[in-house]
Every structure is written in C-alpha cells, then in structure tokens.
C-alpha cells in the first residue's frame, strides 16, 4: 500500500510476489484463490474506512 501527501492511496496484491512481498494466496482460506475474492475492506483502528465489492 502506498499513500501520498494529497490523500491518495494505492493497494496492489500479487499472487506471484517478488522478494519481500507477501504471498496473497497464504492469506486466503484453503482451497480458495484470488478469483474467489468478492469484497475487500480497509480498516483503521477496527473501523471500516473503505470497502469495495466486485
């Protein structure tokens, strides 16, 4: 996740990460992959501040 001083944010996930990146498949339930993601939430201190469904 990257943010700017203008309040912009960008998040990128990769199922084939490079060095020092998190393997997103390890965060998903067994038997699921990125094609099964239906909703993403960003929380701040436990409060949802951004939510996207697709």
Helix residue percentage: under 10%
The share of residues in extended strands comes to 25-35%
Quaternary structure type:
single chain
How many domains, as an integer? 1
Sum up the overall morphology in one term: globular
Radius of gyration: 13 Å
- What kind of sheet is the major sheet? 2 strands, antiparallel
> How many H/I helical runs?
0
Helix and strand composition category: mainly beta
The secondary-structure element order is EEEE
pLDDT < 50 runs, ≥5 residues = none
User: Looking across the biggest beta sheet, what order are the strands in?
Assistant: 1-2
What's the N-to-C terminus distance?
19 Å
Mean pLDDT: 83
Strands, count: 4
Please tag this protein with its features.
single chain; 54 residues; mainly beta; two-stranded antiparallel ribbon; two-stranded antiparallel sheet; globular
Structure description:
This protein is mainly β. The chain is about 0% helix and about 30% strand. It contains no helices and four strands. The chain has strands at about 1-5, 10, 40-45, 45-54. The strands form two sheets. It has a two-stranded antiparallel ribbon. Strands 3-4 form a two-stranded antiparallel sheet. It is globular, with a radius of gyration of 13 Å.
């Amino acid at each position: 996740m990257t943010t700017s001083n203008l309040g912009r944010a960008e998040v990128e996930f990769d199922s084939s990460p490079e060095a020092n990146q998190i393997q997103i498949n390890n965060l998903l339930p067994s038997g699921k992959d990125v094609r099964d993601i239906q909703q993403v939430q960003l929380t701040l201190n436990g409060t949802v501040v951004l939510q996207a469904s697709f």
